[in-house]
Amino acid sequence: MPAPTYYETLRVSPAASDAEIREAYRRLAREHHPDRQVSVGSSVGATSMPAINEAYRVLGDPARRAVYDAGLRTPRPAPTPDPAASDASNGFTPTVHPSHLGPARIPWRSLLFVGVIGVIGVVVLAQFTDPGDPLGPDGILGVGSCVTIESNGFAREVLCTGDVAVDLVVEALVPFDATCPTRTEPHQDRQGMGIACVAVP
Questions:
Q1: N or C end: fewer C-beta atoms under 10 angstroms in the chain?
Q2: Which residues, including other chains, have CB under 8 Å from residue 162's CB and lie 6 or more apart?
């Protein structure tokens, strides 16, 4: 038995107007809505409401309806038996290819779980990892940098020894035309970036 047409599903004639189709859909939706059927105790709405919705989706849109009507006028070839179809006599069940199940779904919960585990792993590893030796001087003076004064009077960054009496520390960096604060000596930055005001030990 062939499947009913969308017109038969909505119980209207193929010549029905848009208003008649809309009214038929509303009437059938009230009769077959799953909420109404659950309250009545029947399962009719659960099976027929999707067919009603699909029929109205096509017939309620003039462009889709025109394509559908053209398909109804074109004769369809008789279906050929599918050798992979389920056969009760031999108990064979066909394999459904994933492309027939609709678009792929993204496993958001799994991705979120893996992300959380990754973050926890990074935090735990950071707690037990030795930071290693401090980096050496990069040659760019900043406030708090330890310096040595070269023979030409330029300040060059060096590693701090931790001895306050020996380390010369940059207290401020000022432009060439500015003066250093009191209790500091001006020395030109070896990179030419300005004047390093070095605290007097």
A1: N
A2: none
How many Å apart are CA 185 and CA 198, to the nearest integer?
5
Indicate the domain borders of the chain: 6-73, 146-199
Specify the pLDDT at position 108: 85
C-alpha torsion sign, points 75, 77, 78, 84: negative
CB 168 within 8 A of CB 132: no
Q: Centre a 10 Å sphere on the Cβ of residue 137 and count the other Cβ atoms it contains.
A: 14
**Tokens (6 digits) for 88:** 């009760």
Residues of the chain by 3-state class (helix, strand, coil), percent to 5: 40, 15, 45
- State the residue for tokens 């020395």: 187
Q: How many helices (H) and strands (E) does the chain have?
A: 6, 5
Model confidence over 13-37: pLDDT tens digits? 989 999 999 999 999 988 887 776 5
Q: Are 153 and 165 within 8 A, CB to CB? A: no
Pick the CATH number of 6-73 from 3.40.50.150, 3.40.30.10, 1.20.1250.20, 1.10.287.110: 1.10.287.110
